[in-house]
Amino acid sequence: MKWLLYCNILMIPLFSGCDSSENNNDTGTYRIYKEYLVDAYLEVEKMYGRQLNATTLELYFSGKKYGITSENASEVAKFKELAVKHNDDFSDYITVDFGYTVGNYVSYAENFTGIEIRSSISWGEGHSAGSTLNDLCYFTAYSFAPTLKDHAKGGLTHIRKHADELTAADMELLQDGFLRLDFSDGNSRLSEAQVITISLSTLSGRVLRADLKIGE
Fold it and tell me: Domain of life of the organism in this record (predicted)?
């Protein structure tokens, strides 16, 4: 009887280690298996902008979302169609934050290809009213593309580049909700009254536009 009890105790760690996810309490992450890297796609209808602080603007969007967790069969079918379009056949393990739940990884149905930022006022020498501010502005975002292409361990890659240095590859499969324009090089004039016009182009040639009144 004692021998059976001893064997049962030894077996506990063996079975407890057979979970499909691998937790790491030290880093606040765990590993899970994902058939698709991206959980949902937003079909963008309109773009908006808002000021977060003295140096940062944020872009956000409205539109129809298609996700793998939808209870609507036609929406799931549309999601799978978009997954094929973006070559998302991930089917691998990935490290995610403990706060992650299926449905959190949202990208855009159509990739962006470029951005243009202008102001209604002068931002100093070489930046007269109406001229581009791309060389003064860092575009920051998170992308799923590098992970999907290289099967990296983490789900997202941080993108931070001057807007005039961006390539179409930098703007593939961006994470929804984290697109920001950062003027943190000491040249920000976001405290002054003006209209910031942001134009975002898509792969199909569509141009989304947002006019943001700030400093008033």
Answer: Bacteria
pLDDT for the residue numbered 24: 52
- Kindly give the pairing relationship between strand 40-51 and strand 157-162: unpaired
Given a cut of 80, is residue 20 above it in pLDDT? no
Q: Quick one: which of 77, 145, 79, 78 has its CA closest to 111?
A: 145
- Sort residue 215 into left (φ over 0), alpha (ψ -120 to 50) or beta: left
Residues 6+ apart with CB under 8 A from 99: none
Residues 6+ apart with CB under 8 A from 184: 55, 56, 138
Domain definitions of the chain by residue range: 24-214
Q: Cβ of 101: how many Cβ atoms within 10 Å?
A: 10
Residue 9 has pLDDT above 50, yes or no: no
Q: What's the pLDDT score for residue 22?
A: 54
Query: For residues 154 and 157, what is the distance between their CA atoms, to the nearest angstrom?
Result: 8
